[in-house]
Amino acid sequence: MTACFPEDEPLTPEWRADALYRLFRGVKTASKDSGTSLRDCLVPVEATDPTTGELIAEKNTYQKVRIMGRNYQAHVAVLMLVHNRHAIRNRGKEHNEVGMHLCNNPACRNPAHLKFGTSREDSAYKVACGRAPSGDLNGHSTMPDRTPRGDGHYNTRLKGERRVTAIELIKKYGHLQGYAPAIAEFLGCTLATIHELKRKGAHLNPEVKESEIELTFSARPTRKARSAIPKKSADVRRRIAGEIRRRFNDAPLDERSGLLLQFEAEYGFTGASIRNILKREIYPDVAPEIPIPTEWGIGRRKSFKQRRRQGDSK
Length: 314
What we know:
single chain
């Protein structure tokens, strides 16, 4: 992190003394062929090979130093010493000053190999020296499967008929849980694109018509849609509770887990309510002859503390 001081504020003698001590203690001259004629790089001793004295490629990284209680990039601090001024930061891409390594060695602290430049100049220099890939060497060309583009990009924008279709489908199925993955799969776009259209509320336009396209997915009402459904009477809820217990008890063990979602969509109950019905936490006197199931977490095993609290040592 560079200092956030005005450009024309000079460096204090205390700062310069501390910077000289921390930047140039324990450094040595080392070289590494990096595509330029600059060879005598000043790098930390730990970044060199003790036998050959050459710069180790794995340790040829940007260094940090702590000067007067603040962290700096080593090469930027060297330029601040040379020019007796602070680095300019956060003034846009055209005027955002950074420290450039003319030797292409990030660990170098030699003032002759460093200069101030803009971010754009630094990027152009990297490409010119071969430090940054460009053209056919860029990752967009060499690894297209890892570079999402077009419809595969998370921030893609639907246009034309596809956008209209997406809005119509959201208006038709937006009140059901699981609508977004189904629409995204149908249109071949990302899930984030459908959620963004729903967030912007484009489907709330009264001129948007409901689509005639039929999508098949495990749909169930959202919490907001369920709250608008009229409440069932007590007798109806008790009858449904008995049906749920009987159907769940009669179903084979390998089919019981799928029945929970089916009950939610069929009876309009939440998953928690259905589990409470099966555990007899609500309507305990309905269908008393049916035992409480214990598969798939319907009847959870009590912890040791709960058993000890109830006087059960088993």
